[in-house]
Amino acid sequence: MKVSERTETTTPTVFTEARFTALLTLLADEDPSVRATIRSTLLSAGNSIFSRLEHHRLHPDPEIRRRVVELLDEQGRLKRDEEFMSFILTHGEQFDLEDAVWRFVLTTYPTVNVNAYRAQLDEWSSIIREQLPKESTAEASLHGVNKVLFGDLHFRGNDADYYQPANTYLNRVIDRRLGIPITLSLVYLFVAKRLGFPLVGIGMPGHFLCRYQSSWEELYVDAYHQGQLLTRIDCKRRIANLAVEYDESFLAPLGSRRTLQRLISNLHLIHKEKEQLEEAQRLQRYLVALSR
Question: Does residue 139 sit in the same domain as residue 273?
């Protein structure tokens, strides 16, 4: 039984320390049916069981440790799921996109140290800032970002396994330096924001880009292809190759809510096609909430 499926009772079970220790030992039983029974028995104690399990996160028996961490992580995902849904339902079209993306990451990786990843983005931004000349054009500034992200750090598009779910989670993208157009663009956007560059996300059909626009310069950045710089005409040619009728909205900035929706839509489609229905249903709930 999943943590999210557990129904609270008015009188949760209370275990003595000896009983709790015995149940903990049986979590490592080789028989899956025994483990499932023990799991259900432990969960009958209600939320109080998780504080007791937390003390055994570093249990000396590796199998017990693994089962304990599974339970705690599942409980953590449920909590983060509720927090993320609340965030979606209480915010309008525009919000801090980076904050929202990390909140989404936590629904699958509840123990991720978000502050550490933010600090990493801070560090990369500082390195780029130190290398940029004081006076530089848009093209020179973007080449400076490209040098660090794609030259020094080796971020790249995951052509070999494009539909791997890890490509959609920002922590995994940063860890592996692999991603898809939207997540590599998010790394680019979040670094650029720290540098004060006027970049926005562009949700072009079939691809995601960044756009640098000032009162006198406009350039598009293809983060999936090593930060390739494009003009508006280049983008229109790409759209024409898709055999779709051009619409000006294709090159319009995408707001925070729609960007988050597009990110989750990609992952929802992957799980749906793999017939991973539980994950697909979880993501569908987010998409319904985001469409309101």
Answer: yes
